[in-house]
Design a protein that fits this description.
Number of domains: 1
CATH superfamily: P-loop containing nucleotide triphosphate hydrolases
Oligomer: single chain
Strand order of the largest sheet: 5-4-6-7
CATH architecture: 3-Layer(aba) Sandwich
Mean pLDDT: 88
Strand content: 5-15%
Low-confidence stretches: none
Number of strands: 7
Largest sheet: 4 strands, parallel
Shape: globular
Number of helices: 16
Distance between the termini: 49 Å
CATH class: Alpha Beta
Helix content: 40-55%
CATH topology: Rossmann fold
Structural class: alpha/beta
Length: 309
């Protein structure tokens, strides 16, 4: 039996939904399939100073922000979004980069001269020291907890595993509130990056999905300045905002595809749902809303982060 497999079996294990379970690494729950590659990210990934890493809790606006960041950094290649899914243009460290290669690819001269763009759902509490020492740029997006919960529940029910039995909403609510969710507790995940962004504002850009939706243009300009590539004119900004809008992106054949990527068990079209704020009202009753709001007051408001309700 291989040592890694033995280690995998020794990890704490908790039922998530149906026959699916999560493994725990240093107090953080992860989907078992990605445990080996997550360990490799933590042990092997050495960020470069010019790297840009999009960090997020699952289902908080990652796909949209991938499109925006790719377009901001690669303005001459922004048309690539027409034929390439955002998750292929901005690969996940744990689900694609370290899952694909048996050994992490050597850094090339081209990497040193250009900007590498990655994403991750790993919480700051785990790779924080590596990110800090590299002095790279991190962009973090969060979304209000109730919408995040509903979006994650809907997304999970599109997995291949859900063919054996869907994830009940009541169970999803219970797991969310009891912190048995992939990628650490939602609240701990957000606060880890929120605190880091206050300590290192030149290296960590923190934005909410709701603010990005309300004034996309302003935040796109702020992102470009944060990344050191400001726009020369307003027309460039408006063009990127329009080309990365939900209506435009979801209309591309590549994003409407029912094909499954090699690295995950959902079709490409599952990453584009509605792109709205407040959808939880269509699914959660008043008692559940108050329960989650109470958690939000305790975890966010008590820490001085007045967000989430």
């Amino acid at each position: 039996m291989e040592p890694l497999h033995e280690f995998h079996l020794s990890l704490p294990k908790e039922n998530w939904w149906g026959d699916n379970y999560l493994n725990q690494i240093n107090g953080v729950w992860f989907v078992p399939k990605f445990v080996p590659s997550i360990l490799r990210v933590l042990n092997e990934f050495k960020p470069l100073s010019n790297d840009v890493i999009l960090a997020s809790f699952p289902k908080t606006g990652t796909t949209w922000l991938k499109s925006l960041l790719f377009s901001i950094i690669n303005r001459s290649s922004k048309e690539s979004l027409v034929d390439n899914h955002p998750h292929e243009l901005v690969p996940s460290l744990e689900m694609q980069v370290f899952e694909k290669y048996e050994s992490y690819p050597l850094v090339t001269d081209n990497d040193l001269d250009s900007r590498r763009l990655f994403s991750t759902h790993i919480p700051y509490q785990l790779p924080g020291k590596a990110l800090d020492s590299a002095n790279c740029r991190v962009v973090y997006i969060t979304r209000k907890p109730k919408d995040t919960l509903v979006s994650m529940w809907d997304f999970t029910n599109k997995w291949k595993a859900a063919e054996k039995g869907s994830w009940n909403l009541e169970e999803a609510i219970e797991k969310f509130c009891s912190r048995i969710f992939p990628c650490v507790s939602y609240y701990d995940h957000v606060m880890g990056f929120k605190k880091a962004s206050l300590e290192k504002p030149k290296n960590i850009f923190f934005v909410t999905y709701e603010d990005l939706m309300m004034d996309t243009k302003t935040h796109v300009k702020r992102l470009a300045e944060f990344l050191g590539c400001p726009f020369d004119n307003e027309e460039e900004v408006e063009e990127i905002v329009k080309s990365c809008s939900f209506d435009i992106l979801s209309s591309y054949e590549v994003n409407k595809s029912r094909d499954f990527p090699s690295w995950f068990q959902v079709p490409y079209n599952s990453f584009f749902r509605q792109g709205v704020v407040g959808d939880h009202k269509n699914y959660l009753d008043a008692k559940t809303i108050e329960r989650i709001d109470a958690l939000t007051r305790d975890k966010f408001h008590a820490a001085g982060f007045m967000y989430g309700i």
